[in-house]
Automatic annotation (TrEMBL):
This is Pregnancy-specific beta-1-glycoprotein 4-like. Residues 287-297 have a biased composition (Basic and acidic residues). The gene is LOC116044754. The lineage of its organism: Eukaryota, Metazoa, Chordata, Craniata, Vertebrata. Residues 200-212, 277-286 have a biased composition (Polar residues). It comes from Sander lucioperca (Pike-perch). Keywords: Glycoprotein, Membrane, Signal, Transmembrane, Transmembrane helix.
C-alpha cells in the first residue's frame, strides 16, 4: 500500500513541475512584454509620430496594428488605411514611422509595428485632455477661523492621471487635493494657490489671501474728482445764465438797475446814455415849440 502511494506521488511530480514552469514562463513573458511597450502621453488635438525603431536593410513592407486590428498596411506597392486612420494618418515608407494628426481619445491604445515581417517594440499611446485652470474652495472655516480646509477644484475628466500641488507663497507644501491649514502655523503666509498637472499640461489657480489675516479697512479719502465735477457743472450753469441774460436784456446783469427776481431784470432796455440823449432831444423840441408860440412884443 505504501509503495503504491509513493509511486503515484512520483507520477504527479513531473506534472506539477511542468505547471510551475509554465506559470513562470507566462509571468516572464508578461514582464518582458510590459517592458517592451513604450508609454507615450499626448494631448487631445496634438500630432504624434510613432517610431518602430531601427531597421536594417531596405524596407519592403510595413504594417501597424492598433491593438489586434490593422491600422495601416503597405505591401510594397499600395497603402491600406482602416477605420479612423483613413483621414488622419500617413506612413513613411523610408523609416516605417506612422504619423497621426488631430489626436482624439479613440486613438489611445497599443500600436505594434511590423517591418519586413519582423515585429518591433510596441508603443502604448495614451491620449488625454489638458488639465483645466483650478479654483481654490474654502470649507469648514470656523467662526473663530482657527482652521480651514482648502480644496483644489477642477474638472479632470479625461485628464487623468492628475497630480495636485499646493503652494504657500512660493513653497510647495502638499500634493493632495485638499489641504488643512491652521491659524497657528500659517500666520506668516500671505497667499495660497494650487496647481493641477498631468503628463501633457499644467495649470495654476489664482492666489487666494490667507483667511486668517484680516484685511485693513481702506482709508476714506476726500473725493476731489467728484467735487471738481460738481464745481465745473455749476460754473457752466452760471455762465450760461449770464450769457442768456446778456442776449435778452442787451446788457450785463451788473448794469441792470433791477434785481434778478424783478420782471425788468430780463427785459431789454436802452442804456442810460441813450435814454439821456432821447430825453435831451425831447426837451429841446419842447423848448423850440414854446419859443415859436411866444408872441413878439
Amino acid at each position: 500500500m505504501f509503495l503504491s502511494v509513493q509511486n503515484r506521488s512520483s507520477e504527479m511530480s513531473p506534472s506539477l513541475t511542468s505547471m510551475i514552469l509554465a506559470a513562470w514562463l507566462c509571468v516572464s513573458l508578461a514582464v518582458v512584454s510590459a517592458d517592451s511597450e513604450i508609454p507615450l502621453y499626448k494631448k487631445v488635438g496634438d500630432d504624434v509620430v510613432l517610431k518602430p525603431g531601427t531597421t536594417s536593410g531596405t524596407i519592403t513592407n510595413i504594417m501597424w496594428k492598433h491593438g489586434p486590428n490593422i491600422a495601416i498596411q503597405w505591401d510594397g506597392t499600395e497603402f491600406d488605411y482602416y477605420r479612423q486612420f483613413k483621414v488622419r494618418s500617413r506612413l513613411n515608407i523610408t523609416n516605417g514611422e506612422m504619423t497621426i494628426t488631430g489626436l482624439t481619445r479613440t486613438h489611445s491604445g497599443l500600436y505594434t509595428p511590423e517591418i519586413n515581417d519582423v515585429t518591433k517594440n510596441a508603443t502604448h499611446l495614451i491620449v488625454i485632455a489638458p488639465v483645466p485652470k483650478p479654483t481654490v474652495g474654502k470649507s469648514n472655516c470656523g467662526a473663530e477661523k482657527t482652521s480651514c480646509i482648502l480644496t483644489c477644484e477642477g474638472n479632470t475628466t479625461d485628464a487623468e492621471p492628475v497630480t495636485y500641488r499646493w503652494k504657500s507663497d512660493s513653497d510647495v507644501t502638499s500634493s493632495s487635493k485638499e489641504q488643512l491649514i491652521n491659524k497657528g502655523n500659517s500666520s506668516s503666509i500671505k497667499e495660497f494657490r494650487c496647481e493641477l498637472e498631468n503628463p501633457v499640461s499644467q495649470m495654476s489657480s489664482d492666489p487666494i489671501s490667507n483667511p486668517f489675516i484680516s484685511k485693513p479697512s481702506p482709508k476714506e479719502e476726500p473725493n476731489v474728482s467728484k467735487g471738481l465735477i460738481v464745481f465745473v457743472a455749476l460754473l457752466f450753469v452760471v455762465l450760461l445764465l449770464v450769457g442768456i441774460h446778456r442776449c435778452k436784456a442787451g446788457m450785463w446783469f451788473f448794469q441792470k438797475e433791477s434785481m434778478p427776481w424783478q420782471k425788468d431784470f430780463w427785459r431789454k432796455q436802452r442804456s442810460r446814455a441813450s435814454r439821456d440823449a432821447v430825453s435831451n432831444g425831447t426837451t429841446a423840441q419842447e423848448k423850440g415849440q414854446k419859443d415859436e408860440e411866444t408872441p413878439m412884443t
